[in-house]
Known about the structure:
The chain is α+β, with helices and mostly antiparallel strands. The protein contains 4 helices and 4 strands.
Amino acid sequence: MNINIKYTNLDSTPAIEEYIVDKFGSLKKFIPRLNKKMIPQMQVEVSRSSKQRKGDVYRIECNLKLPGRLLRAEADSWDARLGIDACRDTMDREIRRYKSRTRPQDSSGQQKLRKLRGK
C-alpha cells in the first residue's frame, strides 16, 4: 500500500511520518487480495487550524482508493497522534464493511477451474 502524506499549516516531522506509516500501514493486512491485483493508494492529510488555539486544533483526513469505492475517514483532535488513531479506527471499520459487501469473484479455486477449462 502506498501512503501519501500531505501537511497543511504544519511542518512535517519524521516522528509523525513514521507514526502515520506504522498505523495506516497495518491496514494492508485487511486487504490482501487487493494487493495482488493493484496497489491501493492512501492519501493522508494532517492539518492544523491557523486561527484556533484551543480545542480540536488538528484535523486528519484519509482517503483510500479501492476498486469501485473510495473509503474516507476524518478526525479532529487536540493532539495529532490521537487524531491519527481515531482516523485509523474509522478506516478499519470502513474496510471491514467494504469487505463484507464485496465477495471475491476470482478466488483461488475459481482461478484453477478457469485454467482447467482453458479460459
